[in-house]
Design goal:
The protein is built from 18 helices and no strands. It is mostly helical. The longest helix has 21 residues. The chain starts with a helix and ends with a helix.
Length: 319
């Protein structure tokens, strides 16, 4: 009977991958230690199902459940290897099927698990940046890069939260990504949060010229290279601030070369707010913020509507 259940559920899920009842039956077989269905066998099956149904939320949820069960009986090293496999599987499906929210969510979950187990995410960050470079209009890739940056900079973000006096028991219990997103929301929506930071942003906006003289792209890139190699930033490279600075400068460069992509403007908003939060403990971040403001002014010449909308958002943020 167990073999029949395994076979019948497999057939049904190949047709309808979101049949929760069938997945739950397979969970019961695995928990019962049935010879009809092994955990690794079911992991392989979910990978096959996802090639046909890449946006099946039930399949992704079942795969995560399988991995959680496997973690209880697997060494840390082997589990890290398995999580690297998860990153590759999710990346392949995200590439094959654009705007696959479930694949990106699973990829982030795997990245958080790698981070929690002490694994290295620098290669994953570079892979995500390469993906974004080839998919400039896809919001998913930008969100993922932002969250990887947070995972790679937890101690610095904890430092900024502590400096602002916003840490509490609930915040400390949440993940670095959740804590950072909470601070971004406060900065974006609560005028009473960080008044000194807002005042300094107002001053920087007022000091930014209304027009930026026409300069060659080589001059912009030279200035950006200067900011990256400046001693004030280089002293912390390849530390967390350097990662955020590098991503922000890359984003402004792409906006000059490929204007009109809403996803990039949204990405720049998050990067700028993150840099503002980091500037509470690193004053050398401000030249980068000022450079971004000048770059936005320059973009009024090529994509006036998007640049104007961004400038209006900046004014609101600084109030």
């Amino acid at each position: 009977q167990q073999q029949q259940l395994a076979s019948a559920s497999r057939a049904m899920l190949c047709i309808n991958a979101n049949m929760a009842t069938a997945w739950n039956e397979r969970k019961r077989l695995i928990q019962a230690g049935s010879h009809a269905l092994r955990l690794d066998e079911d992991l392989a099956f979910t990978a096959v199902v996802l090639t046909k149904h890449p946006k099946s939320s039930e399949t992704w949820a079942h795969r995560r459940w399988l991995l959680e069960q496997k973690a209880a009986t697997t060494s840390s090293k082997d589990m890290l290897d398995q999580l690297q496999t998860e990153l590759r599987v999710a990346a392949q499906l995200a590439l094959r099927y654009p705007k696959n929210y479930y694949a990106w969510t699973h990829r982030l979950w795997a990245a958080e698990e790698v981070c929690r187990r002490g694994g290295d995410l620098t290669v994953e960050l570079q892979a995500a940046r390469d993906w974004v470079a080839a998919n400039l209009a896809d919001h998913c890739g930008y969100h993922y890069v932002e969250r990887l940056l947070v995972l790679l900079t937890p101690s610095q973000l904890t430092a900024t939260t502590s400096t602002a006096g916003a840490s509490n028991a609930a915040a400390s219990a949440s993940s670095p990504v959740q804590s950072h997103e909470r601070e971004l929301c406060r900065l974006a929506s609560d005028p009473s949060f960080e008044p000194a930071l807002r005042a300094r942003l107002r001053t920087a906006i007022a000091a930014t010229p209304d027009t930026v003289k026409e300069v060659e792209e080589e001059e912009w890139q030279a200035r950006e290279a200067q900011l990256l190699s400046a001693s004030s930033v280089a002293t912390i490279a390849p530390g967390p601030h350097h990662l955020w600075v590098a991503e922000a400068l890359t984003c402004t460069r792409r906006l000059r070369l490929f204007p009109g992509h809403e996803a990039m403007w949204c990405h720049l908003r998050t990067l700028l707010m993150s840099l503002l939060l980091l500037s509470r403990v690193r004053d050398e971040i401000w030249p980068v913020v000022e450079h971004i403001l000048r770059a936005v002014t320059h973009c009024h010449q090529t994509c006036a509507a998007d640049a104007t909308k961004f400038s209006q958002w900046l004014q609101t943020l600084s109030q």
